[in-house]
Amino acid sequence: MWFAIWCKFTFAFWWFCGCGETMKLAKNVIAGIERHAEECYPKECCGVVIVEKGKRRYIPCKNIAPTGKDFWIDPVDLIAAEERGKVVMIVHSHCNISPRPTEADLIFCERSGVEWLIINWPTKITYQFKPSGFELGLYGREFNHGIVDCYAFVRDYYHRELGIELSDYHREDNWWLNGENHYLNLYEEAGFYQIDLEDLQKHDMIYMTVASQVPNHAAIYLGDGVIGHHQVNRLSSRDVYGGWFQKITTHIMRHKEV
């Protein structure tokens, strides 16, 4: 009961603060979303709203995320939906928590270019939002592997500080334990070359091994003995580059445009 009251209050607050005019969905579309959320509970559901023959329709999709706390729309289902009509909204559920978007939700909404709807189950409270130019700060980020992780920190740093664009490579969680070696296999393609530790300077990328046989963590040297990075299950931060961090360092990389 109290959760429902809190959600209604915060929903009204978000709307008052200007989430913007959002798409009005017909009752049958909302009902389809609710049915899907109930069927998938306690895991997150996901799907899309398309325009088919002049009407909006909700198309349930398979969630292929390895855990029930996130969602990845099955590409096969997404392609099938796109063949039926234009995708105008991305939908997913939050189970037992507020429908307020997470940092990852806001990031992917921007990338998708379409409106999003999140439904809380079992309260049925929904929240809609659109791309608005959201940009995640470099420090204080919550970790979400493959979306907001150490490589995402590196990409965003180079983009914002140096105007250098790095590709957003797909990466499964624990790839370093499954025979993959992304950092060493892809650095040349990304425009980096290796240098000696003695030549370390501001903007260089530092590879480290964290409980791994291959480099699986990257940091940026900020100068004055400080690094910026994002460790698993921690907020992104600035830290002194010494002690343990130097001990687990394997490579120093410099971008050809620096």
Describe this protein's structure.
This protein has seven helices and eleven strands. The chain is α+β, with helices and mostly antiparallel strands and 258 residues long. It folds into two domains: 103 residues, Cytidine Deaminase, domain 2; 106 residues, endopeptidase domain like (from Nostoc punctiforme) (endopeptidase fold (from Nostoc punctiforme), Alpha-Beta Complex). The strands form two sheets. It has a six-stranded antiparallel sheet with strand order 6-11-7-8-9-10. A five-stranded mixed sheet has the order 2-1-3-4-5. A hairpin with a 2-residue loop joins β8 and β9. The protein is elongated. The N terminus is likely disordered.
Structural class: alpha+beta
The residue-averaged pLDDT reads: 92
How many structural domains?
A: 2
Main sheet properties: 6 strands, antiparallel
Can you give me a brief rundown of this structure?
This protein is of the alpha+beta class and 258 residues long.
Task: Describe the protein's topology.
Blueprint: H1 2-16, H2 27-40, E1 46-52, E2 55-61, H3 75-84, E3 86-95, H4 103-112, E4 115-121, E5 126-129, H5 150-162, H6 182-186, E6 192-195, E7 205-208, E8 217-223, E9 226-229, E10 237-240, H7 244-247, E11 249-255
Parallel strand pairs: 3-4
Antiparallel strand pairs: 1-2, 1-3, 4-5, 6-11, 7-8, 7-11, 8-9, 9-10
